[in-house]
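User: hey, got a sec? need T4 RNA ligase 1-like N-terminal domain-containing protein folded
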Amino acid sequence: MANALSVIDVASFQERRAQGLITGRPHSKHDLIIWNYTPKCQYEQAWDEVTLQARGLITEPDGTIIARPFRKFMNMEQHEGPLPLEPFKATEKMDGSLLIVSTYKGERIVATRGSFNSDQALKANEIIEKRYRDFAFLPAYTYLFEVIYPGNRIVVDYGKTEDITLLALIHTATGEEKDIHQPEYATSWPFPIVKYYDGITDIAVLRQLEEANKEGFVLRFESGLRLKVKFAEYLRLHRLMTQINARILWELLKDNEPLEPLLDRVPDEFYTWVKQTCADLQAQFQAIEQECRFELEQVKDLPTRKEQAAIIATKKYRSVIFSMLDNKKYQDAIWKIIYPAASRPFKIDDEL
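Assistant: Yep! Here you go:
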């Protein structure tokens, strides 16, 4: 977005960091911070002006922006309200890792969305040194690429491709985005640039262009709004490859394990499913627990164990009630009762 602020409100970023919604990691050499939203932020849908910006944003400690990547952008189906009635540009949604390249004190800075030294950032730096060393990265701009190589395959198979593809060029101070497909720019790039669906102005037509081994497309409206659309086959394959299912979520909840490590592998499309599945399991647990506590209240004051047992034996969840009566741990018994009947990978929420 043009005319964006060139300095962030550091206090707001530190507040979100303390809440576990974003991370702020330092550069190993320079006094720089890279800000990135967390799985917790995605799971809780805690999006605001700070968390939306924290998608690989690089700043100095005082908040001066050094690299300005895309803000977090949503799936088209997640957009609230009608789509803008304005022209848009559609480009291919690539299935690699976002690469952020900028210049600081005369030195090239390379990072992925949340790290200066991720495997993908290090590999991309190797590619730049090998193939594009002589390219003069303009210091006033942030260059955004998709880094693709066999060791970083997610779903789409790019074969032996090992390269960086230019996605966007953004003026770091103002946020103004240059059209990299304009003839004045397009012929000057030594690296490949993202595919542009030139001349297509109908989203329905774009959906019909689904190809095997493609992720989808990205829409950028004239106002700067970005939305993504993923092809159904890509989502199906991603679902199969990640193999997240209700039984895995059940096990994490039963053992009181955090969901965040698992959510690192889950695309945005399935956060609603994960959240709803966990809520359903917890609701089942609480319903059984409350029913058993009610039944316990009916028998706990009877004079003999025999009388208590005679009544409890007729109840549906007798093993849980007996454990409660004896002040024993009963939680595992409830979790066993609500163990999902079928182990299926998570599916696309119909509303998505």
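Quick note: The two ends are 27 Å apart (CA to CA). Let me know if you need anything else on T4 RNA ligase 1-like N-terminal domain-containing protein.
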